[in-house]
Amino acid sequence: MPEKFTFLENNKPHPLCQVAAEQLQGYLLDQDDWTHNFGLKPDQEGSIIGKMFGVLVVQTSENELGYLAAFSGKLAGGNHHSKFVPPVFDSLHQNSFLNNGMAELTRMNEEIKKAEALKEEDQKERIGILKIARRIHSKALQNELFNHYNFLNQKGEEKSLNQIFKAASYKNPPAGAGECAGPKLLQYAFQHQMKPLAIAEFWWGQSPKSAQWKHNNYYPCCKEKCEPILAHMLDGLGYEMQI
Q1: How far apart are CA 91 and CA 145, in angstroms?
Q2: Helices in 149-206 by DSSP H: which ranges?
Q3: Rounded to an integer, what distance in angstroms lies between the CA atom of residue 237 and that of residue 234?
Q4: Which of 181, 194, 183 has its CA nearest to residue 158?
Q5: DSSP secondary-structure letter at 236?
Q6: Cα-flanking dihedrals φ and ψ of residue 186, to 5°?
Q7: Would you state the pLDDT for residue 241?
Q8: What does the longest C-alpha to C-alpha distance in the chain come to?
Q9: What angle do CA 92, 95, 98 make, to 5 degrees?
Q10: Closest by alpha carbon to 58, among 190, 234, 238?
């Protein structure tokens, strides 16, 4: 049992996380619940998308030990899979404000394209007004999205992405903030009165050309997206993030 909440130490996971990660990796190798091309099998179709996975060793209120699993972003085009904790906020919900807002953004883009296709002098002012309206709508939509991501900590305190990144002196949260495995795991643990003990994240599959992640290797949480969130979520667990 770790004496305090534990991340990677010397690039190695806590032994309990190692056991949990190996069990999860065995599942990834053998499962047929969903199809996702990690680039590990030569005959798979579709775009190759490697993925960061995480495991969180937890202790329940009945003092039972177990682990939770999560993936960063989406897996096989979806947010919900039976082996993994759900997202903090489900942006793919059919009737969500985000889908409605994106539909309106698409409509605005089409209107701008039609006006630009006319190539008439008197359309220039109208196009400029439409583009300003699109920018205002897009910014408001993103701001509303960030306010729907609310994160708990051990103390039961809840803060939105906007509140967290403002406190950390960021201008705005970066795209994809809150979608990583670590925050998903801690959120589920706190929601279900579990005590987090140790966490580890590993890369599974081929790495994008712009990144250097290697299959089956462990990595610390990302600084830009996760550190401010985890600094809030780990408050009360005896672990201090350096931001």
Answers
A1: 8
A2: 161-167, 181-191
A3: 5
A4: 183
A5: T
A6: -65, -40
A7: 58
A8: 73
A9: 60
A10: 190
